[in-house]
Design the sequence.
């Protein structure tokens, strides 16, 4: 799948999923219309669909303008977000099929950051592409605005269980602060130390750390490591829920 990241508001990401054969693109989380229009024009692409991960304005703020440019296109979002996503036409439940950028994917319900919301997963032979919105970031996770730690952990478990070689496309460029917090928690973990250096190098080179690797998140993101023995020893916890709740308190 060809993915074109589009920066909006400085640290948000919208993504164009490009269908090369049709010269069309779907857009994930267009918080602003301007930058999306610019990248569509640059690529000679026609907008074919809008996919929203959740209702927050920095992810859906551009929808109104984009639908006037491409009247009648589908606007996908969670059924749980009904009434909260402008111009929504498709109300997705967990596991519903999704088509975008010439690819077939699946909606995964992601309660936690908000009470409803979806991630979009497009499988590929050796992994796939996951558009996670504000559920999972580099080194950290989204705020629990409308969900509980238990709910969020259940959501993250489902994302963690996706194929190892999945590319993760998050809703914000938060990797530097996320990995720095993970390093503060476990300053002697060599894998996290190495990742911090790689993140700094990537930011110096291109200003971005995407796509993230789901496998690397599994090894370095504390919010995916509630069953890690070292982390449990450090936090003085024993069970999954207990460990995750403690992580929510200390990070
Ligand atoms: Zn959000
Ligand atoms: Fe956001």
Sequence:
């Amino acid at each position: 799948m060809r993915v074109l990241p589009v920066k909006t508001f400085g640290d948000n990401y919208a993504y164009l999923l490009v269908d090369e054969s049709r010269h069309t693109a779907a857009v994930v989380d267009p918080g602003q219309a301007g930058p999306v229009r610019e990248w569509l024009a640059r690529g000679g692409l026609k907008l074919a669909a809008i996919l929203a991960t959740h209702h927050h304005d920095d992810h859906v703020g551009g929808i109104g303008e984009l639908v006037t440019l491409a009247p009648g296109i589908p606007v996908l979002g969670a059924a749980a977000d009904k009434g909260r996503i402008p111009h929504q036409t498709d109300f997705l439940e967990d596991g519903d099929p999704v088509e975008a950028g010439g690819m077939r994917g699946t909606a995964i319900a992601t309660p936690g950051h908000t009470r409803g919301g979806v991630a979009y997963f497009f499988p590929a032979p050796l992994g796939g592409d996951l558009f996670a919105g504000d559920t999972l970031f580099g080194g950290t996770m989204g705020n629990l605005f409308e969900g509980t730690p238990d709910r969020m952990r259940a959501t993250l478990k489902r994302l963690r269980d996706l194929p190892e070689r999945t590319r993760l496309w998050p809703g914000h460029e938060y990797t530097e602060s996320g990995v720095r917090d993970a390093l503060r928690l476990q300053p002697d973990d060599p894998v996290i130390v190495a990742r911090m250096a790689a993140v700094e190098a990537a930011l110096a080179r291109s200003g971005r750390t995407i796509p993230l690797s789901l496998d690397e998140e599994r090894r370095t993101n504390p919010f995916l490591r509630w069953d890690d023995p070292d982390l449990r020893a450090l936090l003085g916890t024993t069970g999954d829920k207990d460990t995750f709740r403690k992580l929510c308190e200390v990070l």
User: Anything to note?
Assistant: The chain has a mean pLDDT of 98. Residues 56, 58-59, 134, 171-172 surround fe (iii) ion (ligand 2) (CB under 6 Å). The chain is about 35% helix and 25% strand. Residues 12 and 172 are 4 Å apart (CA to CA).
